[in-house]
Amino acid sequence: MPHPLIQLEKVSKVYGAGNTEVRALWDVSLNIEQGEYCSIMGPSGSGKSTAMNVIGCLDRPTSGKYYLDGENVAYLEEASLAHIRNRKIGFVFQQFHLLPQLTALENVSLPMVYAGIAAAERQERAAEALKRVGLAERLHNRPNQLSGGQQQRVAIARAIVNRPLLILADEPTGALDSQTTQDVMRIFAELNTDGITVVMVTHEIEVARLTRRVVWFRDGQVIHDRLAPGDLGHMMATAE
């Protein structure tokens, strides 16, 4: 049988010890299949960002197993994790993290430099990715010549240029106005339709309702692992 793309088995993440111990995640089990479009929600301090860091191979669990595309990656060496991040995962963050001295084309090309892809192919694929997010006319603009929404589109192009299995987006619309949020979410939906798994941390109910599945965290645990977007109103009221 096909395995889930993301499979957490009794994953815990504990910081500190004794009186200073903090259980950021506790005994979390969660499966996300290839091709899903999923948002992760919960109140502040619920563990959703820690879960995102573990799923993205940016942090290791204290205990438990994490299978990404069938491979237990929980305790791999950093070099192996870096390789997995570069080849299998695309990251999109709230603050874009573009290098200001580089053009859009050069920013999008960076992950391919680390992947060892030849210069000619890098340029071709970066231009293709920027065209895919509607920035074919902005290849040579630097970040300060782009709006916030355009910068986030560059970041999305950078995330997809290595053709990942998974996009992880951490509050990707947090710095955008409502119209630009709709534009960016439309791009995520199109990428998901093309087969890329999208997992997004958000606190915005309007954003989560545009995904197909909601995972709700509280106190470091998964309270609901398969909420329908229409059920969010009740959950938000409970959280408050």
Automatic annotation (TrEMBL):
InterPro entries tied to this protein: AAA+_ATPase, ABC_transporter-like_ATP-bd, ABC_transporter-like_CS, ABC_transpr_LolD-like, MacB-like_ATP-bd, P-loop_NTPase
Record has Cell division as a keyword: no
Keyword terms: ATP-binding, Nucleotide-binding, Transport
PANTHER family, per database record: ABC TRANSPORTER ABCH.1, IMPORT ATP-BINDING PROTEIN
Pfam family, one: ABC_tran
Protein's UniProt name: ABC transporter ATP-binding protein
GO molecular-function terms, A-Z: ATP binding
Superkingdom in the source lineage: Bacteria
ABC transporter domain span: 6-240
Keyword RNA-binding applies: no
UniProt organism field: Almyronema epifaneia S1
